[in-house]
Amino acid sequence: MLSAFVQEHPTFVGVWAFILGSVFGSFLNVCAYRIPREQSMWRPGSKCTSCSSPISWRLNIPIFSWILLRGKAACCDSRIASRYLIVEALTGVTFAWAVLTFGDGAYPEKALIASVFACLLIGAALTDLESFIIPDRFSIGGALLGLALAFFFPAMRLGVEIGNNLEHFQSALDSLIGILVGSASLYWIGLLAEKAMGKEALGEGDVKLLGCIGAFCGWQGALFAIFAGALIGTIMLLPMALAQAKVKPEEDKSVEQEARVGWGVEVPFGPFLATAALVYHFGLFSLVDPWFENFRMILSSDVTRFSF
């Protein structure tokens, strides 16, 4: 019934999904600010980060309020960071994308699961950008949630044969393998990089976030997120590092030394992992998974060839 409604009214459903997503995006902004400061997520209500004045609900409407106020607080005229607008819009887009991509199929619950996964990834990435930490409630909590969803909704796992008596256990096992393979792979990559560079290369939060990605995307998605995330990070950061390397410190008074993007400077990896996982989960799996399957078949044929 839901899939038929989505097919008949895609624009209506997409708009409402976007509005709902922007509301969740507003909550994720609160999470990114309060969780690192160990503050309650519910009390007190929204307040200005500059003067601590309470914010009326009329001035706290996602996206619309930021545009109406032109990015400035009504109480003290201080600047409101543009990331509030960006996160709300981005979460709205992912919700609409999830509904329009998965909601019209045989298993519309995939749309809800994809939206939940997107919230976990955006929350983890945003907090990592803000405070260089990935809260366990997003990573470990997300991994456990993904494992539970895989058991109760086997259709979320690609390759699971729907209709057999063991589909729930097969899906949960696939999710568990994704958690273990994803976390273990990134852990060993970080350990080897640490030995090579003589300092910590990856944080524990990144390893645990890969467990969450593996729970929702399986081991294929987890491995893809590692290497695609590294590629995305390189593409985005390398030009900035090279450009700043050409600027002498005394010529760049506007940029503090510790805030510069350069060699040896700590950069959060969580946002790149989250971006790669979102790209995989929202469509690229159709290209990535067959490649992994072909690779597995090649290895299997080689083993058979040399077996006695």
Structure description:
The chain has 308 residues and is mainly α. The protein folds into two domains: 1-105, no CATH class; 131-287, no CATH class. It is 68% helix and 0% strand. The chain has nine helices and no strands. The radius of gyration is 22 Å and the shape is globular. The relative contact order is 0.09. Mean pLDDT is 84; it is low at 252-259.
Label this structure with key terms:
308 residues, mainly alpha, 2 domains, 9 helices, globular
Shape: globular
Computed Rg: 22 Å
Q: State the distance separating the first and last CA atoms.
A: 56 Å
Number of strands: 0
Largest sheet: none
Q: In percent, how much strand structure appears in the residues?
A: under 5%
Q: What pattern of helices and strands is seen along the backbone?
A: HHHHHHHHH
Count of separate DSSP helical elements: 9
Average pLDDT for all residues: 84
Uncertain residue ranges: 252-259
The percent of residues in helical segments reads 55-70%
Query: How many structural domains are formed by the residues?
Result: 2
Structural class: mainly alpha
